[in-house]
Design a protein that fits this description.
- By secondary structure, the chain is mainly beta.
- It folds into 2 domains: 122 residues, Roll (Thiol Ester Dehydrase, Chain A); 85 residues, Hotdog Thioesterase (Thiol Ester Dehydrase, Chain A, Roll).
- The chain contains 2 helices and 10 strands; from the N terminus they run βαβββββαββββ.
- It has a 10-stranded antiparallel beta sheet with strand order 1-3-4-5-2-7-10-9-8-6, covered by helices on one side.
- β9 and β10 form a beta hairpin.
- α1 packs antiparallel against α2.
- The radius of gyration is 17 Å and the shape is globular.
- The N and C termini lie far apart (37 Å).
Length: 236
């Protein structure tokens, strides 16, 4: 078992107006690393997508020392943890080419049947990913604590936010949240983030985005007929 490694140069499309890596782009890179490594481990689309199985994210967590910036060379690493019944833990780290630690992250993935949208038992389909430990893992994510919100706006999922799974891509939730709360546009530095995806949101579906603030901490949630997501963000 080897650690997935990808080196890349951050371009203008990857960063925000402060020339720092966008939060949504950071999580998109983590997702891409997960998929690429899973394919390297022999559990690619032939085992999943082509058989009507979809990888989905359930929980994500990131602890950020510093967001990398425009025109900076970075190294992204990812590796799987030990499978937990229906759940596939995965860990990540990002550093500069010179070895400066930038961030650590963790996630819990699952597999669903694309027709029923129900989680499946991976062993039944021959999907096995052996876990490993590097000593660099942070704790796995847990659901953010629910808080009373003071602000809210309506939101309708646009076509451009929908991915190959037929629902709003996880990375776009961070664009949505940062468009609502003032911290990102104010140039504040994101230090940690925790998110739970409760139910998928499909193209054209509507839900309400609500949030509250306590100092440099924010709680944001999306709820329609069902809860959609919950997110806790801390800036510093």
């Amino acid at each position: 078992m080897s650690v997935y490694r990808r080196e890349l140069l951050l371009k203008s499309r990857d960063v925000d107006m402060f020339r720092r890596l966008r939060t949504s782009e950071m999580f998109r890179l983590l997702q891409e690393a997960s998929i690429a490594h899973t394919e390297q481990l022999g559990m690619g689309r032939e085992k999943t997508l082509d058989k009507g199985l979809l990888w989905i994210l359930l929980l994500q967590k990131a602890e950020i020392s510093r967001m990398p910036e425009y025109d900076e060379n970075i190294v992204l690493k990812s590796w799987p943890g030990k499978t937990m019944h229906l759940l596939f833990p995965r860990y990540y780290s990002m550093e500069t080419a010179a070895g400066e630690h930038l961030l650590s992250a963790s996630a819990l993935w699952g597999l669903v049947d694309q027709n029923t949208r129900k989680m499946i038992f991976p062993e039944k389909y021959g999907i096995v990913i052996e876990g490993m430990s590097t000593g660099e893992e942070i704790d796995l994510p847990s659901a953010p604590r629910r808080l009373e919100c003071t602000e809210s706006v309506p939101f309708k999922v646009p076509f451009s936010y929908v991915d190959i799974n037929g629902h709003m891509n996880n990375a776009h939730y961070f664009d949505l949240v940062e468009d609502c709360i003032p911290a990102a546009a104010g140039g504040e530095h994101l230090k940690s983030i925790l998110v739970e995806y409760s139910n998928e949101a499909r193209c054209g579906e509507s839900f309400t985005v609500s949030w509250c603030r306590s100092g440099s901490d924010y709680y944001v949630c999306g709820e329609g007929e069902k809860p959609v997501f919950r997110m806790a963000l801390s800036y510093g």
